[in-house]
Every structure is written in structure tokens, then in C-alpha cells.
């Protein structure tokens, strides 16, 4: 059983250098916002490509189901000359308009370091249209010399040629939505592909020249999923040798088919204990296979962290484009309309200059909460010093006080500048002396799931 | 009650007509009233009240088993006398509290003054313009035994009572208890067999029951249907003819009984009083026998049915007084108010409240202590029968130990705290006052199990627990299961009789502890709801009692400690622990839940640690969902009490209350 609220998870011994180097304080200092420098401008962009062949049974995201016609994969569809699905083409036009109407945050042109095409099933979008979006981003914001450009792809929606074409556009990271290695589970999820297509897709991706960095997505706690099945999926994943693995736990959302059929923790869904066990198994197996558990649901071979996702965990700003997508710019989180018609109207307003962010920053506590919540997802943990600089001593103290019982029970690990774990008594001393004497607490992270104490 | 009865006997019928120099013309005061039905008149002149000497006054109450039609009958009488308009106002006019309306019970005494013309012959008063008018005070009393303290106060101001019995259900447990209360108060009793319109009505059988149980002459019973109005016209004539007028000395300095009081935002403390001797005028200076404080009468009047100023109240009359009291604390229910600067004998004999059920009350949110304190203070102002002392629990923080008259009383107090004062309350397992005697001869009364040392270091020589005599009336086919239930609850049979061909009456001595939690529910469920149950306090009995601690991760939770019979400890322990396992949410670590007697663990459960789902995919950096999840958990936390490192939801405390003694 998990021992941790956020059962995070670094299998790196704490003396080793962490996989993610912290950046300067990720949020805008609030105390003297008038004089302090604005937060670093976004160097990341998320692009939502919402098309899917059909909606998966667990999904409540803004997608557009194209119908099964799109599932057949006429090889020529990946090549020029074909008529694009007008729904896709229209949407991409809208997307291009949004990109063009979005003002870069900085005038001196901070180029994009990461671009992430998410969905939906972005691999359903003809590469030509993906190229158009990339071009638009390049034109508007600039791309750095070696950006990370990721795309989500589903088995059964691409062939070697299409992938080659995408790689040719500058896409250098693929996130393959496999989810499970059992035919029955794939069907039960309402996935538009079967197991054979999974194997085919893995074959295509691994064989693709010029593509070294790819990730595999898995979902745990599916209905009727057994521990044996989960072990099998992890084994197959390790055998496929992706550079990155994302393991998500199934979340039952209202309004989805699963939401109607199932209750979390109740058969045929695994019990909470079983779900937690799946998580521990994943952490164990992937660690054994040489993956670093660098974020609560992310594992990678050294050096293959998803740079784009890391911006999220570090609470750095990012652009977002497309239906229902969420951006974080100048300290403001904004989610675009989830319905196509409203999104189109919104783009129109953006172009007319008649739309602006609802004024005002989120509250300071809210921002602090984001930082704590996001950084505790990572193996690196919370940078206490930078938190204190941004949010002040008193909030930091009350935060540390909150952690006190958990440091004592071992659920939370406090570390010094050299990332050496502090004894609970040292932490206590730190708290009592306002951090002025004794060892200084530099980082706070959650302990690993497998450790017994 | 004995005292009140003695008071009544000693002062009975001392009315001196000479004190009222009334001319013949004034023998017909109704002529001064615009009509018999006079609800719309702006007020009642003091001079009109003066026309009602005690012999023209009747003070009575209505007593009944719950749902036998007491409140409806009261409504009809108020309508019949034009005090309220038919079809206007809400039903159960006198039950003003939300809790009363919801539960169909009366908790607080209310009074209403009615005027009614009646001639001492068989002709209807309407045919006799000269028929004299009477002033009738209906003093509504709670029916449940828990409120016998309130009943005793109210009955002390009455000379008679209408004993209402459902024509189909017949005499029920509360009927018996109420009858004896009235009987011991020396009241004239008018039996009313009500709801005779029901198809299953069997008034003859009820008459026979009344004869068998109370020795009431069958010819005395009135047959009514408060619903159809049948027989109602006989009720008030019977009140006038059978109930004596209030005793009292008209020419003595004023002396009155404080029946009840409540606080009005605009007018201050309003006291319901019964004037026993003398007359009370606006502007009089009065004093409280209990506190010695003096007040000026700012307003005085009758409840007709709402506050109706008259400027005066005469001997035997019942009404209200506003005297600039700042807090209802000054208005002690049962107190004697009298003419200032004169020494009077305080009115005798109120049964002091005896607290039989104790429970700790804590703010659901620890920071709301002041709010809870204020709410309790306000409520106890209107309910003097609750005892309140501050206590501190390591688990729940600062709170109060409250003593109640019984379970219903406790329930009602809770409900009123929440409904009328918006307080959010966690209460601990109710307990009864035990007495523990140690080897060195010292004795302690334990009202809070937590206060009893788990390992006292000295030998316990003996323990005593309070018992009750329970009266249970059931259809005879349920006798078997009920006897079983009572013996499971350590009951001792006292009586087993049949009150008629179908119904049995059982009397048991039961430890109070055994009935305070779920006895009544259990009784109802095994008898398909047919059983009626009532009880009266009885003496203490020696018992083999132990304190049982509940430990979470090895730490005793003081607020969950309880005292149980040794033989039941294991069973109760197991049940408590299972219940807790169900209601304590899994947390970030494993929790062991144990029940222990002394150092011996008698039941144990383990709650495995929890997972919080932060593993769901974070689509496109949209962290709002994850935040929502955290917010939800934070909301949940607010309803939690942290004990050591364990968060306990409020429900867990509530659920513990329901753990039975026997199952």
C-alpha cells in the first residue's frame, strides 16, 4: 500500500544529481510585483488537435469524433494530392488564425523550446496541416535551434511513410498511446485499435530513422485489469524500449461511458488497494529496467525527460492553441472554449482585439498552491528557498509546519542544499529556529512508494 | 410533584368573592366583549380581564400519547372560541418550534387564553344571551417523559387536564405516564376518546381500558373527532363544569409562577406567568424570589393567541410579562415573581431537573467554539433543564458536557442548536451518570467516561448504574421478541399484564445505559412499529462495569471512551471498531483501530493507507482538474477532526452514537 499522499517517487538515490534542474523561481514574485521582473515569457506551446476516430470510453476531453471512416488508413492519404477531411482543414485554419492573432509575450523574441501536439489523436491530422501549424508557430514566435517537438500518435492511424513525413517536418518526439497490451482491455476501453496495431505501431516507431525519443502511454486500473495483465503490459513496454513511459491511473469522469458504467474502487474496477499496487508495480518494474521515475506518472531513460511537460511541473508559462486548450501566460491560466462554435467565435474576438483575459491574477495562495502541488509531483521536489523568496517567509513557515508530522512519519523527506535527507529532529530544529540555525532545509519532496518505514 | 400537589391542596378554593366589588351588571362581562369570537379585536382591555374572577377562570392542559391528536384538538378549541380563525394560521398552532412541527411533539410550553360563554344548563350558550363568559387558559405541555420537568411546571399552573386517547390505538405507554403525572398533581382529569371517525375506532374498548388501568368511570369519557368536529362542543362545557377554578388570594400581594420564558429580539425577555395571588399591573415593581432582583412591569397581557396587552392580570389568570429582563437567564423557569419589597413564601415544589443522559458537545469546526458557546447559552436560556459545563477533549478540543433529561431531550437540543442557531455540532457517545466506588471508600460520579482513569491504580470496589422502569405496550403477538430484547438489554421483568384482549403491558427494570442508544428503534422494528414505550427513572443498581477505550494508532481517543457492562465489552468493542473502520476514511498511512479495556485489547481492525488519485493524465498542462481534486479533499478535511495524526470525519462520531448495546 502506498504510504504517501502524493506517492512520488524518485528512484534516484537522493545524492545523485536530479534529472530536472530547477529554474529560477517559476512564479512571479508577488510582494513587489511593481518592481520585480515579470515572469519569464513562454518558451513552450501546446497545440490541441482534437480529432479522433471515436471517443474512448474514459475520455471527457474536447475532441471531435470523425467516425470510423477515418480509421481506415488508405496509404495514399498520407501523401499529397488527397482531399483533406474538411473538418480537419477548417479547424487547422482556425488554429492558424489563433496563432497569428496571439501576441508574443516578449518583444525581444524568446523562441519556443518545446512544442507539443496533443489531442485528440494528432496523428490523424495530415502532416501537411501539421506542417502549416509548425510554420505558423515558427513565424510568430520563432523556434529555438533544437526544439523538442512532440506529437501524440495512436496505433492504427499512421504508417511508416506518414511518420517519416512528420519527422521530416522537425517532429522529434512521439508519444504513442498504447494504453494496454491486452486485446480485451483495449476493446473494453473503446479504443479504435487492437493489439496487432499496437505491435505494428511500435515496430514503425522503433524502425523510424531520425526518431530516437519516443514515449509509451499506459493506463492502469482499467475495468477487469488484473495484476498479471498489468505485469504483462509493463513487460511488453520494457521490451519495446521506449525512451520514456507515462503511466496514468484511470480516472472515472462524469459523463463518460465509464462514468455511467462504473464506480471507482468497485468491481470490475480494481479496488483502491489494487490500484495503488499497480502503481507500485509500475514504479518497481520500470525502475528495474533503468527508467527514472522523475515525475509521478512519468518515467524516462536518463536525459529523456519530456521537456515540454517539465515546464508544467515547474509552473512555467506556456502558450496553448486550439479547442479547449489551457494556456498559462503572465501568471494567468486560461482555458479556451471546449465547443467548436464557441472556440471559433472566440478566435474571431481575439482577432478583433475584443477579447482580453479576465483581469487579475489568481490569488497568491492559489499560486503558492500551484507551486506546491506541481513541484511535489516531481522527484526534485519543492525548492524551499525559491518558494520563500517568491511567497515570503511566513507562508513558507506555515507550509513547513504542515509537513512536520509527515517528515516525522517519513512520508515527506526534507533535504539540505546538497540534497542530503535531514533527520526529522534536524527539521524540527530548523522549524524552531526559523531556519536561521542548524541545517537549512533546501528541498522538500515526497518519499518513494516502495520504501517501508 | 408532591410539592405542587401539596401547594394546590393547601390553597384550594380560597377565592373570596368579596374582593371583587362587582355589580350585577358586571356578571356578564361578555357584553363588554364585542362578540364571543373576538380574534380581530385590537386588544383586550384590562378592565375586561377584571371581570373574570377566579370562579370564571379555568386553567387546563391537554395530555396525550404522541399522535393521539393533542395538537389538532388544541387547534379546534382555539377555533371554537374564535381565538384563531378557522382555516387560518398554521395547523398545530401552539407548536411553534420547527422541531415540534417536524416531530409532531411539543417541547416547550405555550399558553393561550380563550373566552367562552357557558350557562349551567343544557341549552347552548348561543341561545342564552345572559350566559356568563369564562376565561379559559390552555397551557400546552410537552408529552414526552423527558420533559416531565416542563410538564410539572405547566401542570402546577393547571387545575385540570384533558387526557386524550386515540379511539383505535387505545391507551399507550405515554398515556400512562401522563396520566400519573396529572394524577399526582391532583388535577381533575377529563378523558377524551378522540379520532372516533376512524373505521377502526373502538371507543368501548378504550373506555374499558381507562376503567381497568386508571379506574376512570366509563361515563366520564367524551367521544370526539377533532378532525370532523364531532363531539367537540362537549369539551369546553366539561372543562368549565368539571375543572375547579384556580385557587388564590385576590387580596394578597401579587405572587406568580414563571412558566416559561423566551427572548424576543425587539421586546427583550418575555415571561409566561400564572398569577397565583393578587393582581399584576403595568408599572408594578416585582422581584424574583430566586435572584432577588427587582423589575418594573413594562408590559403585561394575555396570549390571545399572540401577545395581547391588557395592562393587568388578575388572580388565577395566565399571561405574559415584559419587565426589562436582559437575559432569559434571569427568568428562571419555576421561579416565583412577587411584589417587590414584600417577602413572600416562594411557590413550592418544582421537581428539579435530573440529568440522566450526558454527552459532550463540540464545535464541528474547532474554531467555532465561541459560536457554539453562544448558541448553547442562548438555547439553555430557554431550556433550563440542560446542564452545561465546559470540558476539554484532547481529540475534539474545547467543548461542553451537557446533561439532559433523556434521549429525546438530547436529540431535540441538538436539533434546535442546528436549526435555530445554525451550530454545527459533534456529540460524543451519550452516557449515563455512573457511580464508581474505590477500595479506599471514595466514590465518584462519572458523567464523562474519559474522566475515569483507565488504570486508576486503585481497586474499584463497586459500580452502580441508573435504571429505569420501562412501560411497554404491544400487541400480544409481539410479547416473545420484546421479552427477548429486554433480557438482552439486561432487563428485569416487573409486570406482564393484558390491558385488553389484544394488548399486553410489560414493565421492566432496565439499565438506563441499555436504552439510551437504540432501544426504541429496535423495539419499533421488532414489533412492526406497534410498540409504545415510556420510562421513568428508578434507582441505581450495582453492576459490573468497565471503561472501554478506543485507540487509533495506539492513541486513546478520549471522546470515544465509553463505559459498558463487562459481559458486553467484547461485543460493543467489536462493533464500535467495525463502525469506525467504515467511517474513518483511509488516510496516508495505515491506521489501527482498537477497543481496549484497561490494557487489554478486545477488538482490532486495520485500515490500510489510501491512494489519492493524482495519477490521472494532465492533458496539455491543464492543471485545473488536479486543483479541483485537491480542493475537494480540502473540503473534506473541514469536516474532519484530527486526533493525533488521524483525521476522523464527523460522521464517525455520529455513527458511534448508533452503535447498539446488544446486537
From TrEMBL, chain A:
- Composition bias (Pro residues) maps to 15-28
What are the start and end residues of every segment in region (Disordered)? 1-36
> PROSITE patterns recorded for this chain?
RADICAL_SAM (PS51918)
Q: Which GO terms describe its cellular component?
A: cytoplasm
Q: CDD domains annotated for this entry?
A: Radical_SAM
**One GO BP annotation of this record:** porphyrin-containing compound biosynthetic process
- Ranges for domain Radical SAM core come to 37-292
Query: InterPro entries of this UniProt entry?
Result: Coproporphyrinogen-III_oxidase, Elp3/MiaA/NifB-like_rSAM, HemN_C, HemW-like, rSAM, rSAM_sf
GO MF annotations for this entry? 4 iron, 4 sulfur cluster binding; coproporphyrinogen oxidase activity
Main role? May be a heme chaperone, appears to bind heme. Homologous bacterial proteins do not have oxygen-independent coproporphyrinogen-III oxidase activity. Binds 1 [4Fe-4S] cluster. The cluster is coordinated with 3 cysteines and an exchangeable S-adenosyl-L-methionine.
UniProt similarity note: Belongs to the anaerobic coproporphyrinogen-III oxidase family. HemW subfamily.
Q: What is this protein called?
A: Radical S-adenosyl methionine domain-containing protein 1, mitochondrial
Organism, scientific name:
Oryza punctata (Red rice)
TrEMBL record, chain B:
Q: What is its EC number?
A: 3.6.5.n1
Mind listing the GO molecular function terms for this protein? Answer: GTP binding; GTPase activity; mitochondrial ribosome binding
UniProt binding sites for GTP: 64-71, 140-144, 194-197
Judged by the first EC level, this protein's enzyme class is hydrolase
Pfam families per the record? EFG_C, GTP_EFTU, GTP_EFTU_D2, LepA_C
Residues forming the Tr-type G domain are 55-247
Q: Where in the cell is it found?
A: Mitochondrion inner membrane
Which membrane topology describes this protein?
Peripheral membrane protein
Explain the purpose of this protein: Promotes mitochondrial protein synthesis. May act as a fidelity factor of the translation reaction, by catalyzing a one-codon backward translocation of tRNAs on improperly translocated ribosomes. Binds to mitochondrial ribosomes in a GTP-dependent manner.
Provide the family line: Belongs to the GTP-binding elongation factor family. LepA subfamily.
Name of this protein? Translation factor GUF1 homolog, mitochondrial
Which lineage ranks, top first, belong to the organism behind this chain?
A: Eukaryota, Viridiplantae, Streptophyta, Embryophyta, Tracheophyta
Amino acid at each position: 500500500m502506498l504510504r504517501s499522499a502524493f506517492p512520488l517517487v524518485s528512484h534516484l538515490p537522493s545524492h545523485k544529481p536530479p534529472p530536472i534542474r530547477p529554474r529560477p523561481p517559476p512564479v512571479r514574485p508577488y510582494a513587489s510585483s511593481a518592481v520585480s521582473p515579470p515572469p519569464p515569457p513562454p518558451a513552450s506551446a501546446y497545440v490541441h488537435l482534437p480529432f479522433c476516430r471515436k471517443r474512448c470510453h474514459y475520455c471527457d476531453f474536447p475532441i471531435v469524433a470523425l467516425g470510423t471512416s477515418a480509421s481506415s488508413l488508405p496509404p495514399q492519404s498520407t501523401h499529397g494530392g488527397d482531399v483533406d477531411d474538411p473538418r480537419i482543414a477548417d479547424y487547422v485554419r482556425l488554429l492558424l488564425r489563433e496563432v497569428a492573432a496571439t501576441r508574443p509575450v516578449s518583444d525581444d523574441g524568446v523562441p519556443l523550446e518545446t512544442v507539443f501536439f496533443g489531442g485528440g489523436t494528432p496523428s490523424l491530422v495530415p502532416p501537411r496541416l501539421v506542417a502549416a501549424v509548425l510554420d505558423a508557430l515558427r513565424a510568430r514566435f520563432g523556434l529555438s535551434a533544437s526544439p523538442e517537438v512532440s506529437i501524440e500518435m495512436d496505433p492504427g492511424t499512421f504508417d511508416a511513410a506518414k511518420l517519416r513525413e512528420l519527422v521530416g517536418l522537425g517532429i522529434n518526439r512521439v508519444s504513442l498511446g498504447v494504453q494496454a497490451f491486452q486485446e480485451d482491455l483495449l476493446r473494453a476501453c473503446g479504443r479504435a485499435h487492437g493489439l496487432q496495431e499496437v505491435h505494428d505501431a511500435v515496430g514503425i516507431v522503433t524502425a523510424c530513422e531520425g526518431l530516437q525519443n519516443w514515449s509509451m502511454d499506459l493506463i492502469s486500473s482499467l475495468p477487469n485489469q488484473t495484476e498479471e495483465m498489468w505485469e504483462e503490459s509493463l513487460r511488453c513496454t520494457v521490451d519495446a524500449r521506449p525512451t520514456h513511459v507515462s503511466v496514468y491511473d484511470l480516472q472515472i469522469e462524469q459523463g463518460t461511458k465509464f462514468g455511467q458504467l462504473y464506480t471507482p474502487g468497485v468491481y470490475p474496477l480494481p479496488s483502491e488497494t489494487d490500484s495503488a499496487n499497480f502503481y507500485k508495480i509500475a514504479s518497481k518494474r520500470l525502475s528495474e529496467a533503468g527508467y527514472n521515475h522523475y515525475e509521478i506518472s512519468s518515467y524516462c531513460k536518463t536525459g529523456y525527460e519530456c521537456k515540454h511537460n517539465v515546464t508544467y511541473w515547474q509552473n512555467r508559462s506556456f502558450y496553448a492553441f486550439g479547442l479547449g486548450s489551457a494556456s498559462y501566460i503572465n501568471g494567468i491560466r486560461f482555458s479556451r472554449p471546449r465547443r467548436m462554435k464557441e472556440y471559433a467565435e472566440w478566435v474571431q474576438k481575439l482577432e478583433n482585439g475584443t477579447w482580453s483575459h479576465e483581469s487579475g491574477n489568481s490569488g497568491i495562495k492559489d499560486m503558492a498552491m500551484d507551486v506546491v502541488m506541481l513541484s511535489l509531483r516531481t522527484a526534485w521536489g519543492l525548492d524551499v528557498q525559491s518558494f520563500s523568496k517568491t511567497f515570503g517567509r511566513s507562508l513558507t513557515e506555515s507550509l513547513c509546519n504542515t509537513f512536520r508530522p509527515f517528515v516525522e512519519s517519513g512520508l515527506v523527506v526534507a533535504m539540505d542544499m546538497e540534497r542530503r535527507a535531514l533527520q526529522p529532529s534536524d527539521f524540527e530544529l530548523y522549524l524552531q529556529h526559523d531556519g536561521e540555525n542548524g541545517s537549512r532545509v533546501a528541498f522538500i519532496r515526497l518519499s518513494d512508494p516502495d520504501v517501508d518505514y | 410533584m408532591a410539592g405542587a400537589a401539596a401547594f394546590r391542596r393547601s390553597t384550594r378554593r380560597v377565592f373570596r368573592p368579596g374582593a371583587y366589588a362587582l355589580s350585577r351588571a358586571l356578571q356578564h362581562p361578555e357584553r363588554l366583549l364585542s362578540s364571543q369570537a373576538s380574534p380581530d379585536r385590537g386588544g383586550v382591555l384590562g378592565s375586561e380581564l377584571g371581570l373574570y374572577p377566579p370562579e370564571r377562570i379555568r386553567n387546563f392542559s391537554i395530555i396525550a400519547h404522541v399522535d393521539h391528536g393533542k395538537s389538532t384538538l388544541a387547534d379546534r378549541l382555539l377555533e371554537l372560541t374564535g381565538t384563531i380563525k378557522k382555516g387560518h394560521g398554521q395547523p398545530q398552532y401552539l407548536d411553534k418550534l420547527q422541531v415540534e412541527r417536524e416531530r409532531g411533539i411539543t417541547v416547550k410550553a405555550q399558553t393561550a387564553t380563550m373566552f367562552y360563554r357557558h350557562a349551567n344548563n343544557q341549552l347552548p350558550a348561543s341561545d342564552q344571551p345572559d350566559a356568563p363568559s369564562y376565561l379559559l387558559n390552555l397551557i400546552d405541555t410537552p408529552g414526552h417523559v423527558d420533559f416531565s420537568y416542563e410538564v410539572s411546571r405547566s401542570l402546577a399552573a393547571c387545575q385540570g387536564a384533558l387526557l386524550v386517547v386515540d379511539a383505535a390505538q387505545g391507551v399507550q405507554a405515554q398515556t400512562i405516564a401522563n396520566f400519573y403525572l396529572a394524577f399526582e398533581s391532583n388535577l381533575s382529569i377529563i378523558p377524551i376518546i378522540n379520532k372516533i371517525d376512524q373505521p377502526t375506532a373502538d371507543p368501548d374498548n378504550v373506555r374499558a381500558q381507562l376503567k381497568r388501568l386508571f379506574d376512570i368511570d366509563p361515563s366520564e369519557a367524551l367521544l370526539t373527532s377533532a378532525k370532523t368536529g364531532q363531539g367537540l362542543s362537549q369539551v369546553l362545557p366539561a372543562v368549565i363544569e368539571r375543572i375547579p377554578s384556580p385557587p388564590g388570594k385576590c387580596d394578597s400581594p401579587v405572587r406568580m409562577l414563571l412558566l416559561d420564558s423566551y427572548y424576543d429580539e425587539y421586546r427583550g425577555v418575555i415571561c409566561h406567568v400564572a398569577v397565583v395571588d393578587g393582581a399584576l399591573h403595568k408599572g408594578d415593581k416585582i422581584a424574583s424570589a430566586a435572584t432577588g432582583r427587582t423589575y418594573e412591569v413594562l408590559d403585561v397581557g394575555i396570549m390571545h393567541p399572540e401577545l395581547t396587552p391588557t395592562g393587568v392580570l388578575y388572580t388565577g389568570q395566565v399571561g405574559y410579562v415584559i419587565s426589562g429582563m436582559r437575559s432569559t437567564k434571569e427568568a428562571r423557569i419555576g421561579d416565583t415573581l412577587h411584589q417587590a419589597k414584600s417577602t413572600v413564601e416562594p411557590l413550592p415544589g418544582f421537581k428539579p431537573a435530573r440529568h440522566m443522559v450526558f454527552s459532550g458537545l463540540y464545535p464541528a469546526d474547532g474554531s467555532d467554539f465561541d459560536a457554539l458557546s453562544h448558541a448553547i447559552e442562548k438555547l439553555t436560556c430557554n431550556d433550563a433543564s440542560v446542564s452545561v459545563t465546559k470540558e476539554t477533549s484532547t481529540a475534539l478540543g474545547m467543548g461542553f458536557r451537557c446533561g439532559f433529561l433523556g434521549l429525546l431531550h438530547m436529540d431535540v437540543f441538538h436539533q434546535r442548536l442546528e436549526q435555530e442557531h445554525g451550530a454545527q455540532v459533534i456529540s460524543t457517545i451519550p452516557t449515563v451518570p455512573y457511580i464508581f466506588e474505590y477500595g479506599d471508600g471514595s466514590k465518584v460520579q462519572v458523567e464523562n467516561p474519559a474522566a475515569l482513569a483507565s488504570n486508576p491504580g486503585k481497586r474499584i470496589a463497586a459500580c452502580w448504574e441508573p435504571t429505569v422502569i420501562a412501560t411497554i405496550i404491544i400487541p400480544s403477538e409481539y410479547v416473545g421478541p420484546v421479552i427477548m430484547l429486554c433480557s438482552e438489554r439486561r432487563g428485569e421483568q416487573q409486570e406482564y399484564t393484558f390491558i385488553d384482549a389484544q394488548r399486553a403491558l410489560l414493565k421492566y427494570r432496565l439499565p438506563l445505559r441499555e436504552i439510551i442508544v437504540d432501544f426504541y428503534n429496535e423495539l419499533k422494528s421488532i414489533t412492526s412499529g406497534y410498540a409504545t414505550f415510556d420510562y421513568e427513572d428508578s434507582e441505581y443498581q450495582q453492576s459490573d462495569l468497565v471503561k472501554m477505550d478506543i485507540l487509533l494508532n495506539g492513541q486513546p481517543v478520549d471522546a470515544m471512551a465509553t463505559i459498558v457492562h463487562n459481559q458486553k465489552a467484547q461485543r460493543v468493542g467489536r462493533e464500535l471498531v467495525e463502525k469506525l473502520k467504515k467511517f474513518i476514511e483511509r488516510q496516508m498511512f495505515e491506521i489501527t483501530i482498537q477497543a481496549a479495556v484497561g490494557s487489554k485489547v478486545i477488538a482490532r481492525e486495520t485500515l490500510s493507507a489510501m491512494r489519492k488519485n493524482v495519477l490521472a493524465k494532465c492533458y496539455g498542462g491543464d492543471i485545473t482538474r488536479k486543483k479541483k481534486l485537491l480542493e475537494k479533499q480540502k473540503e473534506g478535511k473541514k469536516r474532519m477532526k484530527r486526533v493525533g495524526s488521524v483525521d476522523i470525519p464527523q460522521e464517525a462520531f455520529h455513527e458511534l452514537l448508533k452503535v447498539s448495546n446488544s446486537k
